[in-house]
Amino acid sequence: MSFSEHFPNEPENDLVRVLMNDIPSRMKLTIITPSFNQGRYIEQTICSVLAQDHQNVEHIIIDGGSTDSTIDVLERYPHLQWISEKDRGQADALNKGLTRATGDIIGWINSDDFYESNILGSVVEHFQDPDVMWVIGNLTYQFEESNERFPGRSPVVTFDRLVNDPDIVRQPSTFFRKAFLEQAGGWNPAFFMVMDFDLWMRLSKLSSPRMVSENWAYFRLHAFQKTSSANTLRQMKELTAILKREQVPWIKIWNLRMRKRLASIKAHLKRMLLKVRLLSPKYSSRP
């Protein structure tokens, strides 16, 4: 059957234009938020997903059994899909969210971070290109104590760049095709600190991301987050395991380990200076 037989009352060019223009609005996003005892921040995360220019969005929150005010906050927002139960960590929570997701595009925003307003429309536009499997926007750092914000341009991500500098990962401002995440195998629960880096390594071997020079998210730096200095050595061990798996030359692994050990020493010195009040409290959440 011809086009005109399907739509006898519509000019063909006009209808094609209408259908093509409607593709972005029909593309669905799923935002996954893993959470545990982040009741002080999670409402801002939820509101940032609501404050968008693309409405075809579902927000799934996988809570690890919080004992603070998190559940009270979640119950105030009936549009959310959420569960609260013990899990095996952040990667396990993200995989649970991916299993429940019905969107074409997946965003991952943690419960202490938040999105820039009205950016999801731009995200969807980039996925109109069928060759784009994942996109990375810019990220702004927000320091909890001083409330200062420092915009940053996300570094270009390739497999080789990740090998040389694992710290180029910018998770809150990254979005993926769901099928692409599933092809890569999702998140590995074996990693507590660097499940994002592990995923980026596997994804980058399949397809390079599109880099977008727009601020898409805010990464909050505070004294209680998992990326604090207390976990630097654990992060180093996990990074070493991944680089060995990828058969990275030992000299590059050694250089990374030395950088991480130096960072741990500097963090310990900073804690001492804060304790004796020789350093302003505003630096307590800074790397």
Would you spell out the secondary-structure blueprint of this structure?
Blueprint: H1 3-6, H2 12-26, E1 29-35, H3 42-50, E2 57-63, H4 70-74, E3 81-84, H5 90-100, E4 105-108, E5 114-115, H6 120-126, E6 134-143, E7 149-152, H7 159-164, E8 174-177, H8 178-184, H9 195-204, E9 210-221, H10 232-245, H11 250-275
Parallel strand pairs: 1-2, 1-4, 2-3, 6-9
Antiparallel strand pairs: 4-8, 5-9, 6-7, 6-8
Helix pairs in contact: 10-11
What's the gist of this structure?
The chain has 287 residues and is an alpha/beta fold. Helix content is 40%, strand content 19%.
Q: What can you see in these coordinates?
A:
There is one protein chain. Strands 1, 2, 3, 4, 5, 6, 7, 8 and 9 form a nine-stranded mixed β-sheet that branches. The chain has eleven helices and nine strands. The chain folds into two domains: 203 residues, Spore Coat Polysaccharide Biosynthesis Protein SpsA, Chain A (Alpha-Beta Complex), CATH 3.90.550; 55 residues, no CATH class. Helix 10 runs antiparallel to helix 11. It is globular. 40% of the residues lie in helices and 19% in strands. It is α/β, with parallel strands linked by helices.
